[in-house]
Amino acid sequence: MIKPSKGQIDDLMDEIRQRAARSERVLVTTLTKRMAEDLTDYLLENGVRVQYLHSEVDTLRRVELLRELRMGVFDVLVGINLLREGLDLPEVSLVAILDADKEGFLRSETSLIQTIGRAARNVSGQVHMYADKITPSMERAIDETTRRRAKQVAYNVAHGVDPQPLRKKIADITDLLAREDADTAALLQESAAATGRRKRPAAEDELVTLIDDLTAQMHHAATELQFELAARLRDEVGDLKRELRGMREGQMA
C-alpha cells in the first residue's frame, strides 16, 4: 500500500494504535539516524511502547530487543537498516517504510523487497510505503512481492497449509517457556543455596550445566519457530530437573 508522505507520522500513529490494540507488532524503517531518533522520541511522548534499534547496539542487546518485541514488552521497533537483522517475526503485522521514494541503497529494489518480506510471516501482514511518487524500484519491488505472495497462496492451497494456527503456536510456546524458565530458576536457586552448605557432587554439577545448555537450545528453537524441537527439548529439560530433584532429595535423606 502506497500512502502520501504528507501527514505520514499521524497516519503511522493511527496504524500503530490499531495494531497495538490487537497485540500485533510494527516495524518502522527510516532513512536517517536523526529521523529514527526523532520519530522514536515522538512516539514515546505519545504513549507508544517503542524502541530504537540503532547501529551502536551490540549483538546481545539486539537479540534481546527482538525477543522483547516478540514477547510484547513493546509494540514498535524503529530502525534505519533492518535488513541485516534477519528479522522473521510472525507477530509483525505492519512494516512502515518512510520516504520509500528516495532512491538509494536503502530504497533500492532489493532492499525494498527484503524489507517488505518482514511482514510476510503474518497472515494479515501489510506494508505501507510512504511516498509522493512511485519509483522504478518501488514498482519492481511491488510486482515481485505480488508474484511471490500469489505463489505462496497457490502452494498453501495445493498442500492444505493453513498459516492461521502459527499465532496460537507462538503464544503457546511463549507461555510454555515462561513457565519452564520460572521452574528452572527456582530449582537452580535451590541448588546454589544448597551448595553453600555442602560440596556439590560432580554428577550434580553436570546436570546443572546440561539443564542450562538445553534451556538455551530450547529458547533458540522457539526463536526459529521450531516448535516441535522446542517442545522436545522442554521435555528433556523436565526429565533432567526431575533427576536433579531426586538426587538432591537422596542426599538430604
TrEMBL record:
Residue ranges of every copy of the Helicase C-terminal domain listed in the record: 8-174
GO cellular component: excinuclease repair complex
CDD domains for this protein: SF2_C_UvrB
Domain UVR as annotated: residue spans: 208-243
An example Gene Ontology molecular-function term: ATP binding
InterPro entries: Helicase_C-like, P-loop_NTPase, UVR_dom, UVR_dom_sf, UvrB, UvrB_YAD/RRR_dom
GO aspect biological process, one term: nucleotide-excision repair
Name of one Pfam family that matches: UVR
Similarity annotation: Belongs to the UvrB family.
Subunit structure: Forms a heterotetramer with UvrA during the search for lesions. Interacts with UvrC in an incision complex.
Name this protein carries in UniProt: UvrABC system protein B
Species this protein is from: freshwater metagenome
